[in-house]
Amino acid sequence: LMADLMLLICVREYADRVSLTLEDFTMTGLMASFVLCCILFVVALGSDVNEASQRLISLLTRQRLMLAQTCMDSRHKSEYTDHLYLTAEYIDVLCEDILAETEIHPMKIIGLRCGYQLLSSFYVVPVYVISAVVTFCTSDDSAGYCSIAGMGG
C-alpha cells in the first residue's frame, strides 16, 4: 500500500487512472503506523535482550569479586576456600563467555543491532512520506485527490 500510495503521488497518470481518495491516505497511514509500532516494539525488546547480558555480566562480576575477597581474607580460611576460588574462576570464565556470545550473536533487525540508536536510521522514511503526502495534498493541481469520496474536490 505504501508503494502504491507513493506511486500515486509521483506519477500523475497513475493517479488519474486510479481513483485516489482521502480514505486511501487514511488506510495507508494507519497501516504504516501499525508497522512502525511493531518495529518499535521489536527494537525495544531486542534492546532489552542485548542490555540484559551486560546487566548479567555486571552482577556476576560483583559476585566473583565478593568470592575473591572472601578467599583472600585470612579470617575465612577453611576447607572451602579452594572451592570458592574455583567458583570465582568459573564465574570469570562465564562472564567472558556471555560477553563473547553477545558480541558475536546480538539481537538484530534487518542486519542492524537492536537498540534505540537504530531508530535514528528509521526516522527518515516516515518524514519523507508525510512530507510527500502534505506536498501532494496542498498543491493546487492535486488537492482534489485528497478529498473525501463523494464530497467532490
Secondary-structure map with pairings?
Blueprint: H1 2-10, H2 12-17, H3 22-72, H4 81-104, E1 108-109, E2 112-113, H5 119-122, H6 124-138
Antiparallel strand pairs: 1-2
Helix pairs in contact: 3-4
Q: Would you give an account of this structure?
A:
The chain is an all-alpha fold. The protein is 71% helix and 3% strand. The protein has helices at 2-10, 12-17, 22-72, 81-104, 119-122, 124-138; strands at 108-109, 112-113. It has a two-stranded antiparallel ribbon. Helix 3 (22-72) runs antiparallel to helix 4 (81-104). It is rod-shaped and about 90 Å long. The relative contact order is 0.15. The mean pLDDT is 78.
Question: Which features characterize this protein?
Answer:
single chain; 153 residues; mainly alpha; two-stranded antiparallel sheet; 6 helices; rod-shaped
Detail the poorly predicted runs: none
Average pLDDT level:
78
Shape: rod-shaped
Cα-atom radius of gyration: 28 Å
Order of helices and strands: HHHHEEHH
Percent helix: over 70%
Into which percentage range does the β-strand content fall? under 5%
Please work out how many helical segments DSSP would assign.
6
Major β-sheet, in short?
2 strands, antiparallel
Number of strands: 2
Structural class: mainly alpha
Strand order of the largest sheet: 1-2
